[in-house]
Write a structure and sequence with these properties.
Layout: E1 2-7, E2 12-19, E3 22-30, H1 35-50, E4 59-63, H2 71-83, E5 89-93, H3 95-103, E6 110-116, E7 121-128, E8 131-132, E9 137-140, H4 162-171
Parallel strand pairs: 1-4, 4-5
Antiparallel strand pairs: 1-2, 2-3, 6-7, 7-8, 7-9
Length: 200
């Protein structure tokens, strides 16, 4: 299976093409802004360097966040636009799952993957043997499951490795890994008149 992985959740714009154990091409650039303009040419370059075409892609894996509210939607929209006419599966993999896999290259540990989401809060999820134990949760700094975790932590929120993302996406069940944004809190945007669209 040839999997294209995409991440635009943070300052990096990243993509990788992976088939099984073979990494055909990978690129990650720190651009901070302009992901929408950069991602298309980046993917085109990767395809050319790997000697494959969009028609060769079997699946697309997208990092769903947490991350930039606008940025993470760039890769999601691009993936769905590329997949729709070809009938490809698009799977969503959270940044927390990628960080946990990066921290636990040989699954076997209990890993807490956590992101500092500002306002004195962090968004975290616990994984064991590569599988999540419960849903992601938002906690005040210093609270949450930290005290119960003895090994493996992704607290420092490293950059997303698109190769790891691709491998997780290759093994994911499309019915259990929807390509939908993972937001750590509702958006701050209000409707005219200060109406909260998420209230009641």
């Amino acid at each position: 299976m040839l999997c294209l992985a995409l991440d635009t959740t943070g300052p990096q714009c990243s993509a990788a093409l992976v088939r099984g154990d073979d990494v055909l091409a990978s690129d990650s650039q720190t651009i901070r802004r302009g992901h929408a303009e950069y991602l298309g040419p980046q993917v085109e370059t990767l395809l050319k360097s790997a000697g494959v075409t969009p028609g060769d892609i079997d699946r697309i894996a997208v990092c769903t966040g947490p991350g930039s509210f606008t940025g993470l939607r760039v890769a999601l929209a691009f993936a769905k636009g590329l997949a729709l006419p070809r009938g490809l599966d698009v799977v969503g993999i959270s940044a927390l799952a990628v960080w946990a896999a990066m921290a636990d290259a040989k699954p076997g540990q209990t890993v807490l993957a956590a992101a500092d989401v500002r306002r004195g809060e962090h968004f975290s999820q616990v994984f064991k043997n590569g599988a999540p134990l419960g849903e992601p949760e938002l906690h005040n700094a210093g609270e949450g499951p930290d005290a119960d975790i003895k090994t493996g932590s992704a607290h420092d929120a490293p950059d997303i490795d698109p190769v790891v993302l691709a491998r997780l996406g290759t093994n994911a069940d499309p019915t259990e890994a929807p390509a939908t944004p993972l937001y750590h809190r509702p958006p701050d945007a209000k409707l005219p008149g200060g109406i909260d669209p998420f209230a009641g």
